Write the structure tokens for this entry.
Amino acid sequence: MVKKKYYELVFEGRYETIAGMLEGFMLASGKKWEYWFSRRVGIETETFAEAIIEWGALRSRLHHVILEKDFHMLLQKMAAKRTDLKLIRPECTKSAMEIKSAAFTFKAKAYAKKYGTEIKSILAPSPAGIKIRDYKPTEEIHESAKGIELYAPDHDYIFTAEGTASGEFRAILDFRKKLDDHPLVDVSTIRLQF
Amino acid sequence: MKKSLISITAMAFLILSAAFSLNVYAETGTVHGSTVKTEQTGNVHSAEAAADSNAAATVHAAPHIDAKKLSLLWIIPFVGILLSIALFPLLLPHFWHHHYGKVSLFWGVVFFIAFAAYFGISTGIFYLLEVYMLEFIPFITLLLALFTVAGGIQLKGELIGSPKVNTIMILTGAILASFMGTTGAAMVIIRPILKANEWRKNKVHVVVFVIFVVANIGGGLTPLGDPPLFLGFLKGVDFFWTVTRMLPLVSFCIGILLVVFFILDSWYYSREVNRPAASADGVKLSIAGIPNIILLPCVTLAVIASSMNLGDAFTLHYVTVPWASILQVGLLLTITLVSVKISDSAIREANGFNWEPIKEVAKLFATIFITMVTPIAMLKAGADGPMGAIVSSVIKDGVYINSHFFWAAGSLSSFLDNAPTYLVFFNTAGGNAADLMTTHAQTLVAISAGAVFMGANTYIGNAPNFMVKSIAEDNGVPMPSFFGYMFRYSVVILIPLFILVTLVFF
């Protein structure tokens, strides 16, 4: 199976206009592509300077969107031909970069074996296309701490883990969501490599 | 370990003794024991009776410390045990879990040896007997009875944690808290709430509101609800005075918190994607453990019985123990034994019941009660005493500033245990229950509300907070850190509420 390639595009404009344009384009072309607005799926986007500019403008004008390569290519090609459009213009696309890989970090802490086992089963074995680094889960068992306490609380089981997951963009996106859906795992935003 | 503990105790004793001695010689130039006077003492609940001639026989000349010129160093053991309780669970949880009893014993022994050496063994024994026979034993037997009875009651039901169900369950917990204590109510309510919300991704706020409402504010209605109010009761505050005076405040706070909770929970609920369908054959909400429910009012009756004037049972080294107190302790122990005997073991198992919480309270409060002797005496010395700064901060030119009492008691309660904090301000306000229930009634309301309500401000403000957090974490709820709890929840929700309480009531 040929691995799909993805591009990160930075569009300038209103969210509704951009989303409407992308979906309208898909409707008209009859194709079924995937796209994601970076902020909505936990992908690191703007630089600090961009954030300051946006706060100053009191509204979000720059949108980082991930598109499949075919989608991106066709969209750019068609947009270049139609310079007469008022809202969709080639210059509204501020940048387009091919994503080489993606990565995020995670941290987990659980106080019951059930949850420790759940988290371990998500993390090992690592899914296809993903490499997990610095992952050293630890489990502490304190038999004497069983039961409820008031002033001297302690857990009879403590699971901790942290690490970095990196690999193909699509696999990382799904894997991050899976970990984020577990209430006892904290995940960072996804950092893209171009 | 034992040897090192003994060595540390001995060293601390020597250092403290030397420090106390030097300071007092420098200030007063007196010799040891010269600050011991005599006073008229008797049991607080027979204080009313002392007014009439029949009770005159119960009053004895007893050793008494004059705290006006005492060194502030005498509060070190009291502050030491309170800071140990506050900080060790956060900084060294494993050490504290295994050695809290030894740490408590250390502070208690250091205090008592220094106290007895300085004021004389007779004075030391007098205070030891007075504190344990008249305060500690009734206190710990009440908590034991409430905890045992509550552990035999279980809420059952296949509930789905919707905003309506959660709000009703938290309200139920708040009502239970005033009759079975915040610890018992939290123990009964937390597991059904966690079970009902097991499917939800966003449930941290539910546990936080259980801490706010059930583990703290709900206990503000009766002396059974929270240890500070029971200590007030032991000092002579009428049982029903507390109920009638605290009802408007407790209702106001719980009402607002439940509205805020319902709105917040509805918002989180709307974001949940995997809502389970209501099961038609699921068990509806029910209470198991009827025999223990019947025992609950018996606890109330036992406590009220201690207010009766039945005369004095015996006097031991100037300390007179009234029959009413013995009756109360006897009844509470009987209730405890009956509860153990008749309870369904499956219910106790489902509640995760064990004796550890009561052991902790007993070991830690045994020290808190005895080390409180000197700070309380200093506060009673008034604005001219060693703790005059505290007194002056809440009493200006003889006028009691209730809002200051509320916030001062509350601020300390947020970080230190609320029971001793209550007593500190009770004594700052004069320590006379009759006066505090009449002339300065609103001051006592402010102290009670501050001590009870603001225990919810941090995890360390009240013991059940830790218990609820720990049970929630065992059940997969990612509870916030110490500061996360404060800045994401208590500062945002509780502090504005308490400002509103100040504006409306004080």
Q: What stands out?
A: Chain A has a mean pLDDT of 87. Chain A touches chain B through 22 residues (CB under 8 Å). The helical segments of chain A are 15-29, 48-57, 69-81, 113-123, 169-181. The CA atoms of residues 141 and 157 of chain A lie 5 Å apart.
